[in-house]
Amino acid sequence: MTSAGRQIRALLMIGTLAAFIGGADTRANPAGDTAVCAAGTLGVSRVAEIDATGGPRFGAPGPEPFQLLQDKEVVLTFDDGPMRRFTRPILEALDEECVKATFFIVGRMALSDPDTLRNTAARGHTIALHSWSHKRLDRIGTAASKQEIELGLSATALALGQPVAPFFRFPYLGESSAMRAHLKARDMANIAIDVDSRDFLTRNPSVMRRNVMAQLAKKGRGIILFHDIQPATAGGIRALLGELKAKGYKIVHIVPKGQVATLPEFDAMAQREAARRKVVLSTQPLADRSAVWPMTPGDGENLPWAPPAQGSPEPPARIVKPVSQPAAPPPGLPNLRPSVTDDTWATNPLGRP
């Protein structure tokens, strides 16, 4: 542990409410945030304000992967949305426990459903960045990677109608030295993960929940990765929050100290894409607008330093393609309140008759 890490741990042990941790200011959750929470809810234990100047990195692997967190603290993060049929039930579950999370948004998804994106922000969650179209930035070259980052930023800010947090997560956790340098130059924090729900490998909520709790039992804390485009998370997040509460885990909400400005050339591109997509999407039901990212061998969004889960009989979740022609109105929202052992999700994840 570095001297800075020892100093932070000492401050935390004596109960200091504000400490600077490698670009983050951790503060006790303001009383106004907890006052509105019903008795018995999980709530937010603490707010960590991150200064993204110079592009700090958080999450494993690293010399001090848990620098943001004390023992039994977790950060909830959701990637790849918004996807209305799954994002909104997740938001409802988070509201029930009065907790806040960070949503890493894909730009083209944001333009597909800006209403859900704005609703997410209105509920007090942090809106962060996950590229324009979820390409692996460690495989497509510097110019294309820069466009993925900057167009994703411009599109998300356009759809949201306000600046977004200067937090970026690499798609597939595929980092490159060139793009790490780009984030540093743009004063955008690189938010990695510590715990992987592996929700894209199962449609069963109980499997997702066991993945998370098993890793937390070993690590004791961490930034948790979910996807708000996956049925296992939509169906299991409520039970997972209950288990976190029962086992004494506390929620930390990460928020930005500042904002990140978009670049004019990419703003123009985002405006053109928004206009084009508005016409195309007018023929598509909201429930089917977004694609689930394909997961192929070697591309899984697993923890890159850990072996894959063994012995799982379930195949990766299938790809849900956008509807290209007018379709009948979508069915009602699926029942996303199954018990944690409800295996019907394995065969009918969208709750369709």
Model description:
It is a single chain. This protein has 353 residues and is α/β, with parallel strands linked by helices. The chain has a single domain (43-62, 69-292, 317-340), classed as TIM Barrel (Alpha-Beta Barrel), CATH 3.20.20.370. Helices cover 34% and strands 14% of the residues. The protein is built from 10 helices and 12 strands. The strands form 2 sheets. Strands 1, 2, 3, 5, 6, 7, 10, 11 and 12 form a 9-stranded mixed β-sheet that branches. A 3-stranded parallel β-sheet has the order 4-9-8. Strand 10, helix 8 and strand 11 form a beta-alpha-beta unit. The longest helix is centred in the middle third of the chain and has 19 residues, at 142-160.
Walk me through the topology.
Blueprint: H1 3-13, E1 19-21, E2 24-28, H2 31-35, E3 46-50, E4 57-58, E5 73-79, H3 84-96, E6 102-105, H4 107-112, H5 114-122, E7 126-129, H6 142-160, E8 167-168, H7 177-185, E9 189-191, E10 195-196, H8 205-219, E11 222-227, H9 231-246, E12 250-256, H10 264-281
Parallel strand pairs: 3-12, 4-9, 5-6, 5-11, 5-12, 6-7, 8-9, 10-11
Antiparallel strand pairs: 1-2, 2-3
Helix pairs in contact: 3-9, 6-10, 8-9
